[in-house]
Structure formats: structure tokens, C-alpha cells
Amino acid sequence: MKRLLLIIILFIPLVLFAQKGEFILKGKLAIQNTSVSVKLSGQTSNMNISQSVNTTNGEFEFKGLIEEPIEVQLIIDKSGSHGFKIDKISLYLEPGTIYLTSKTDRLSNAEITGSKMNSDNKMLQAALHSSQQKKDALKAEFSALPEEKKSDPNVNAEFDRREGEIHKEQRVIYLDYINKNPDSFLSLVALKKFGGYYPVYAEITPLLNALSSSIRNTPTGKEYSAQLESIFATAIGKKAPDFTQPDVDGVPVKLSDYRGKYVLLDFWASWCGPCRRENKNLINTYLAYHPKGLEVLGISLDAAAMKDWWINAIQSDKIPWRQVSDLKIPNEAATLYGIDAIPQNVLVNPDGIIIAKNLMGKDLENKLTEIFQNVPTK
User: Fold this and answer.
1) What is the pTM of this model?
2) Domain edge (last residue) among 66, 90, 114
């Protein structure tokens, strides 16, 4: 028994270490006598893959070290030959040798072998195919709308409802995969998609804990666990954690500066289309309720290189409330509140207690009406 226990103890680090290692991606396309550029690109909060090579008789190879599987884009730039310029495909890199072979010059026709994760993902995507088609059609339908319709809160609410129905279909598929594959890194990927933009701590944490320790202890597993803990710490009814970030002029602003007032923390970014659309709704809400005592504090998730974009967006959208950002990736205040998707918001009462989260449009207006219905305009 002691020997068996020792073997198990010795084996655990090997399992965890197996998530780190060298990947080799070997490609073969039906391209002769022409060399084309092939780029491999992918990024997570802890890894960045960016490599380029040229094909030789249609063959190419990438290699490198990774801490865990990572989704990447493989991109070919043909500079206009054969009637198209860019051809790309998504795949996962994992330790070992992965083979990509196409009988044509197109990546979209390629077969990927030598990779369990890509094989598993192919089956998962096949199960999701029908709902994904619905989602793509819905996106195309929204894109075809006139700009005034895209800005209509009622239209947006209806599209959000329809998208929510599709998400429910996908969640059933994701959950089935997660429950059946606790040792797969793809289950962690599926769990994050199952949780969506606003993961529910009580729902997601047991599913995460049911995954094998080797998966939970990957960088992504630890990061997601930390995010869930931040979500728990900033749940409705909890005290809003204080933070300090500089405004556009570099002046430090504290959340605690707003103690004694209702304040809406608005997490957004200049590059976020839905955030910019929501700005229009929020401005109207602010103008209606600021005279009654509502404050809004914008927290931008823009990076330092995007500071000018941030300032230009504030001016272009005519945002009247104060804006702050540490211009870091990730933004420290967003991390503190468990936020990695935007737009999101947090409503804090005068005692510094969180009383609502992620209320948009009409839902936010209804909540503020409830709060300020008996408060006279100042």
C-alpha cells in the first residue's frame, strides 16, 4: 500500500507537467512551384503564439513550447492568387506532433490528425453545428438592419432574447461533453462557454471542481477559478471592493470617493461595439437620474496603446460622467470584480453594498425608477 501511494504521489507531478511541452505542427498543401506565407497566431492571458514561415512545395512546419493547449489561427496570405488573398483555419496546439494535410491549396479543406484535442473538438463542433448556423444567421440578420434599428433598445432586446434561446441549446451540448470528459482540456474550454459572459458561481464552481486536477491546475484552470472567486466576492449583497485608478488626466479616483451615493460602475472599452451602443442608452438614463442622485463611474478596459482611442470614444459618444482606467491588460478593477467580458456594470448603494449587476437598457431604468421614485430632482 505504501509503495502504491508513493507511485501515485510521484505520478501526480508528471500528469501536471504533461500539460507543458513542445508542439510541432506539420502542414502539407497542394501548392507547387509557389511559396506562400503561413502565419500561426494565438493568444491567451498567459501565452502568445506568433510565428510565420514560407511554404516549400506546399510544406511548412511550426514548433514551440506551450504550457497548455491553445486555440490558434493558421493563416495563409496568397496576395491575391487564385482569386483570394486570405485563407485561415482554427485549430488547437497541444504537446506532440500535429499533421495538417489538404489535397487542395485551401486550408478549409485540410484534415488534421495526430491530435486528440482537435479530433474531440471536431466532434463537439459537429454537435453544435445546427445551433451555430442559427447564431450565424441571427448575426447576419442584425448586421443587415439599418443603423437606427440597431440602436433601438426594443430591437436589441429581441435579438438578445433570440440569441439567449440559441445559447440554451448550446449549453445542453456543452454540459453533456463536460460531464463525459472530465480529463479533457476541451471540457475546460466548453465550461467557459457554458458559463458565458456572466458565470454563475454556484452553478459553475461544482462543474469546475468535477474536472480532473490536471485540468484544474493548468494556467487557464487556475485563472478561471480565480475569476469565479472574484465573482463570489462581488455578488449582490456583498460590499463593493474599493479600487483606485487614474482618470483621463491622470488624477487618481477611488470608488470610496462615491460613498454616500448610488454609483453605477460601467465596465467598457472604446473597441467594444456593444459597449458603444449601450453608451447611448446609458447617457439617457444618466441624464434622467443624475439630478436625483445617480453617479456613474466608467472603467475602461483599453490598453495603454489605445489611450487616444479611449479619449476619442469619450468625446465622440459625449459621455458626461467620469472615466478611469489603469490602461493595463487585464484591468485590475475588472479582475477584482471577476469581469473578462464587456459591457458589464455593477450598481452600488450609498453604503457601498452591491445591489444589482449587469442591468442594461430598460432593466436598468426600471431598477433606478424603483430606487429614486420618491426622490425629488435636485
Assistant:
1) 0.85
2) 114
